[in-house]
Input
Amino acid sequence: MTELGYRFLRACRRQPVDTTPVWIMRQAGRFLPEYRKIREEADFLTMCKTPELATEVTLLPVDILGVDAAILFSDILILVEAMGLPLKFYEKRGPVLDHTITDQSSVDKLGIPDPNDAVPFVMDAVRMIKRELNGRVPLIGFAGAPYTVASYMIEGRTSKQFAKIKALMFQEPKVMHALLDKVAKATTAYLNAQIEAGVEAIQLFDSWAGSLAPVDFSEFAVRYSRQVIEGLKRDDIPVIYFAQGNPAVLGRAKDVGSDVIGVDWRIEMKDAWDVLAPDVAVQGNLDPTCLFLPPVQIKARVKEIIDQVGGRPGHVFNLGHGILPQTPVENAIAFIDAVHELGQR
Ligand code: CP3
Output
């Protein structure tokens, strides 16, 4: 922390910083050998549900990479399970739900859980992480945005075509809206519990919203993320909204009312900035695969983005999506160092 406060939180609030803050989506994950070692002993969901393990993994990138924020080790699907759809995790296929949402009666069966009863391990992890961080960097809490979470509930797994979601959306819009409203209410309660436990910023992941046409993006994604954000008891806790996959809808994303908008790499930073700033801060946006370049070239790519921001306040550096498991750790370190060096004011 500098004498003015955490540079990550300052940038979220568009205040001046000593240098550009940076963190990496999926920073507490499989690209770290230390993570893979812990994973040999425990499956993924056990790691999420054991505060000691979640704490250990959350802290790894702070110690190893020198990032400016920690993000809670958990998953957007933890809330799905708590609402009543059991989750299984397969090594090769990723997360799978056996029961999915198909109609109004399946929506009616979903619960809106009290997070402290249903997922106490999340709030225990938050408190434990905060103790261990001991003020080094702020802790980001998170949830999936309602559209992405509802989509998972309908598709049951990662999808390429999104045929089931879109069929329900267009054939049974009332059911889709009822589902989104319920997920939004559960998400609001879940994030408020994280805030109460001590997280200092929030990110809403709308990973699948980029598949929507602009008009549907506003009606099915933005509207319910806005509902969540309006329901947060957050004082000055910044909220980051990140919908990846379609920069053409960035202007509409501003309607969610977040402090920061995350952008992926499919748009140049200066163009994203023109659409978003100065109303909101901007997070992003190096292509995650650029971390396969040699460090000299990673630095050149970082410089292009920093130059496009041109020293204006309100930039949080990040990748344009999660770091890939194959990424060499030394390249991730080179990335963080390059941002801190080139971002100096
Ligand atoms: O960023 C962090 O380091 C914090 C932890 C975090 C995880 N998942 C851990 C995880 C966060 C913020 C998430 C969010 C998440 N989870 C999203 C939104 C972000 C995005 O990537 O678009 C989504 C869509 C999910 C759902 C999910 N979880 C999938 C599709 C998968 C399997 C594919 C994959 O990327 O591994 C997961 C598993 C998962 N979540 C892992 C981790 C570390 C890998 C587990 C393992 O194999 O050890």
Remarks:
- The longest helix spans residues 173-197.
- Residues 3-342 form a domain with the TIM Barrel fold (CATH 3.20.20.210).
